[in-house]
């Protein structure tokens, strides 16, 4: 197992980024106005699972798929966590894209349409990564990108 994400030792051996296995895993958390509503939106949109019902559900939830954490949701202005206060202080997620890669891109697009998701950009091919993308806006105004695997389009 290579624990360096990148650096001289991995570059010298010619190990690609995709082949490396790292002990580091992203666990993004976003602040939302309604944890239950956001949880429902993400689980339906991604075909994922929330935590089992728990007493903290109105304040916090985790969205996962096959036991792997995708996204954490936390209510604004609860528990005095730094940077999770004053929802109206700035535009939601300005400068942030919540990005998911999925194997079943067509199913995600179908769900977005059936759920009447706010579509920012219709499905299209990103020529740089040669994959398909759809850009959505979640209930709190965050920009969410759903993408097929890189080089899936082969153009």
Structure overview:
The protein is of the alpha/beta class and 155 residues long. The chain has a single domain (26-79, 91-147), classed as 2,3-Dihydroxybiphenyl 1,2-Dioxygenase, domain 1 (Roll). Helix content is 18%, strand content 30%. It is built from 3 helices and 8 strands. The strands form 2 sheets. Strands 1-4-3-2 form a 4-stranded mixed beta sheet, covered by helices on one side.
Brief write-up:
With 155 residues, the protein is an alpha/beta fold. 18% of the residues lie in helices and 30% in strands. It has helices spanning 8-13, 35-46, 105-114; strands at residues 29-32, 49-50, 60-65, 68-75, 97-101, 118-126, 131-137, 143-147.
| Strand runs, count | 8
- Average pLDDT, rounded to a whole number, is 82
Number of domains: 1
Distance linking N and C termini:
32 Å
Unreliable spans: 1-19
Percent of residues in beta strands: 25-35%
Summarize the SSE layout with pairings.
Elements: H1 8-13, E1 29-32, H2 35-46, E2 49-50, E3 60-65, E4 68-75, E5 97-101, H3 105-114, E6 118-126, E7 131-137, E8 143-147
């Amino acid at each position: 197992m290579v624990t360096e994400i990148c650096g001289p030792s991995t570059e010298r051996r010619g190990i690609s980024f995709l082949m490396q296995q790292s002990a580091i895993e992203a666990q993004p958390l976003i602040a939302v106005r309604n944890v239950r509503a956001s949880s429902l939106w993400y689980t339906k949109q991604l075909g994922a699972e929330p935590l089992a019902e728990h007493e903290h559900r109105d304040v916090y939830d985790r969205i996962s798929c096959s036991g792997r954490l995708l996204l954490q949701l936390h209510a604004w202005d609860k528990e005095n966590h730094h940077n999770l206060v004053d929802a109206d202080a700035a535009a939601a997620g300005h400068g942030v894209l919540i990005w998911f890669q999925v194997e079943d891109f067509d199913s995600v697009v179908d769900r977005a349409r059936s759920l009447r998701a706010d579509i920012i950009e219709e499905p299209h091919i990103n020529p740089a990564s040669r994959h398909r993308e759809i850009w959505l806006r979640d209930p709190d105004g965050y920009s969410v990108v759903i993408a097929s695997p890189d080089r899936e389009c082969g153009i």
